[in-house]
Amino acid sequence: MSSSEISRIKERSKSRKKLNEIYDDSINAYLIHYSCESFYAAPGQPGVGGSTRVTSIAVRNLKSAQTKSWSIHKSAELKGQLPSLAAILPAAVPMTSQVAVPPAAQAASLSGATLAATLDPLERDMLDGYFSFLAMHTESTFIHWNMRDDNYGFSALEHRYKVLGGQPTVLQDHRKFDLARELITLYGLRYAPHTAPSGRKGRLMSVIEMNHISDVDALQGGDEAAAFVSGEYMKLHQSTLRKVDVLANIFDRTHDKCLKTNASFADKYGVHPVAIIELAKSNPIVSAIIFIAAVGVAILNYGKIFLALFK
Question: How far is CA 155 from the centre of its chain?
Fold first, then answer.
C-alpha cells in the first residue's frame, strides 16, 4: 500500500473527527458566505486594479439556525440613503425602493470617484457590523465554501476593510472549516462534477442538484456580481442568505453520512485492508459484524483444539 493512500486514509479520519467535533459543539459554529463584485472587468472596460468590493455577508448558527447579515443595501436603508443608491444605479429602483430617479441622474456617466463616494461609506458600515460580530466570536468555528485566499476569502475581507480604513479582527486558521475541501478529503476528487446537470458552474451547484436541496434565490458567483452591477441589491442579498442555508444542509447531510455523491467505494475508502479497518471504525454495524465473525472464528478454533486434546 502506497504512502499516499495511507496518508489519505489518515486525513479522511481526521476530517471526519473534526466534522463530528464541530457538530457536537454546533452552538459555537457558524456557516458563512459573502458576495462581491466580479473579479473580472466587463467586456470592453479596463480592469479596476484594486480589490473587489464586498456587497453582502451572512452568517448562520449551525445549532439554532439564527442568521445575521450585512449588506450595502441594508446599510443604505438604515442610513436613509436608498435614494442615493438608486440614483447611481437606476436598475436598483424596482428591487429596493419606489424612489423616482431623475432622468438626468439616469443619463449621467458616473466616474469611479462618484461611485466610491456613495458606496465606500456603505461598504465600510457593512464591514463594521461583520467585524464587530467576528470580534465576539473568535473562539467559534466558521464553516465556509472555498473562502481561502486574497481573491475570495477571510483575508480578502480583512484587506477590503483595511482599504476602507478599518482594523479587522483576524480569525485564526484553526477556526476555519472549508467544507469544499473537506468533501474532497472524505469522498475523493470525483465526488461531484464542476458543472451541474442544469449547466450551472461549480461543485456546490452539483451537490445541490444531486441532493435535491432547495436553492431558490441562490445565484452563481458570476450572477451575484452581475446583480450588483445592475443594482439588484436585494436579489444579491437573498442569494447570500440562501447560500448559508444550503451550506448548513450539506454539512448536516455529510455528518449524517447521507450526502449523495458520485464517489465510489474505492474513492471513499480505498481497496486495501487498512481501508477496511477504517470503514469498520466509522461504521458501528460493520464493526459489529466483524466482531461477531472474529468471535465465531475463535470459538471454532478453540473447539478444534478441544477435540484434538481428547482424541
Answer: 15
102: cell is 431623475
- Count of CB atoms within 10 A of residue 114's CB? 13
What is the C-alpha end-to-end distance of the chain, expressed in Å? 44
Torsion 221-227-229-231 (CA) sign:
negative
Distance CA 271, CA 276 (A): 7
The pLDDT > 70 percentage for the chain reads 74
pLDDT digits over 257-287, tens only? 999 999 988 777 765 555 556 656 666 665 6
Distance CA 148, CA 159 (A): 13
pLDDT of residue 77: 92
Residue of 77, 45, 115, 105 whose CA lies nearest to 237: 77
Question: What is residue 28's DSSP assignment?
Answer: G
Per the CB < 8 A criterion, the answer to whether 245 and 173 are in contact is: no
pLDDT (average), residues 236-264: 95
Of 267, 248, 265, nearest in space to 208 by CA: 248
Beta strands in the chain (DSSP E): 29-36, 54-61, 67-71, 141-144, 176-178
Question: What is the per-residue pLDDT across 164-181, written as a single tens digit (0 to 9) for each?
Answer: 999 999 999 999 999 999
Residue found under cell 450585512: 70
pTM of the model: 0.79
C-alpha cell at 202: 461549480
